[in-house]
């Protein structure tokens, strides 16, 4: 029996991150229903800005990918303290912070008010909720207790509901149900903890990733936000560094870096879907050959193409389980992020001076 089939190995998961990632489909569907009462500010907006960091910003990326196909108003995700210069009265700023205390997001919230932009706030509470209530700004609560990255379903569902109300996407209840079902089925039948390693591709891949150098995540189009999040999941859950490259851009520069060889074994994880442009699918095939020539390998992480949302949720499951399985193999609790806590404490001391 391999380690990942041994129930005792999962005792390292003291905070139940595996429980969170297994429930993502269910929580996404629940959050969609809970957001039904959410009403966006009135008006016509030329652009939408999602001010967020970390796991909350990942939800903004997913939302932006949906809007890009249908919305005349572009969506930009701002990871930082300063809003773009174009933000003004015809901009909607969505301040999204799981804790409600993210200093970069709070800075953007304050700037949005001074520039006359419409604002919506989303958080579990914290200073962001307090400010929104005091300012008469719409605030929507995230009702899920988890690390911010594990609340993706709640953050994303709320953003997509706002987009629906603003005419930026055409999602409806059945679309959400189908996406949630796609996640549940993949976890239950193929990559979840209860599926034995001999027919569980995620467990098999996680074993290979122990020797990856470098570890690269590749994705294109609507799956690019998932690729970026997966890179971050490897950092936060497995405590290993990974890189993310977007296709087709990776075939215009990154691939040359493999010509010099690698210290150990380059491994790429490539998110794939029948919904991708044919040209991008051909580029993935070329990339597989380049990795093989460099002494490494590229593994495909397939989504079925039920819908763009279904693809995103299936792909998210792949990244969640691979990063958490790798944590178990390394004997690490996936949940704690001590380095992030040290940064927060150091910044808080600096601000208090």
From the structure above, extract its key features:
single chain, alpha/beta, five-stranded parallel sheet, 12 helices, 9 strands
Q: Short description, anyone?
A:
The protein has 353 residues and is of the alpha/beta class. The chain has helices at residues 17-22, 24-34, 54-70, 103-114, 126-135, 152-165, 173-191, 201-209, 224-238, 278-293, 308-329, 338-352, and strands at 47-51, 75-78, 91-96, 118-123, 139-141, 212-220, 243-247, 265-272, 297-302.
- Overall shape: it is globular
Percent of residues in beta strands? 5-15%
Give the % helix: 40-55%
* Topology as a string of helices (H) and strands (E): HHEHEEHEHEHHHEHEEHEHH
Could you name the ranges where pLDDT drops below 50 across 5 or more consecutive residues?
none
Structural class: alpha/beta
Q: What is the arithmetic mean of pLDDT?
A: 94
Give the C-alpha Rg.
20 Å
Largest sheet: 5 strands, parallel
Overall strand count: 9
Helical stretch tally? 12
First and last CA, distance: 55 Å
Q: Main sheet: which strands, in order across? A: 2-1-3-4-5
